[in-house]
Amino acid sequence: MPTGIYKRKKIIQVCIVCIVCKERFYCYNKTAKYCNKCFIERYRKYFAKRKRDERERNPGLAREKDRRNHIKYRHQRICNSKVKTALDSGKIVKPKRCQKCKKIDIIQGHHEDYTKPFDIIWLCKDCHYGVHHKREKLYGKG
């Protein structure tokens, strides 16, 4: 291991103009061309086009994937449909606060078990993402 004093590279934010919407934004990357909003929109279009092209190249495979997903997620669709009907009729009420972090935000329903459609945990989008993608336990970290 070499010894010596290493200087850290100074990281500066650079003001850049988006080539799509012409708005100014700050970024650490000097080669950035798009603001965050335009970047996301551009990639949504890119992946939608890519999916369309894949379906056109191999329509049989696309139909088979759709059929498998239709069967695989049938219980989730039925459960979500029951909850939506109950919400619309007023039998259940969606709370304004997240049950995990108590933040007032866009609230989403989470089912631990799709065989119990009215056993819902109401979470903000961040906590819901955490439950699904980070595999956090519902009431506590880790």
Describe the structure.
With 142 residues, the chain is α+β, with helices and mostly antiparallel strands. It folds into two domains: 11-58, no CATH class; 73-142. It contains four helices and four strands, in the order ββαααββα. The protein has helices at 36-57, 59-72, 74-89, 125-133, and strands spanning 14-17, 24-27, 107-111, 120-124. The strands form two sheets. The protein has a two-stranded antiparallel ribbon. A hairpin with a 6-residue loop joins β1 and β2. α1 (36-57) crosses α2. The longest helix is centred in the first third of the chain and has 22 residues, at 36-57. The protein is flat. The protein starts with 13 loop residues before the first strand and ends in a 9-residue tail after the last helix. The model has no long low-confidence stretch (mean pLDDT 83).
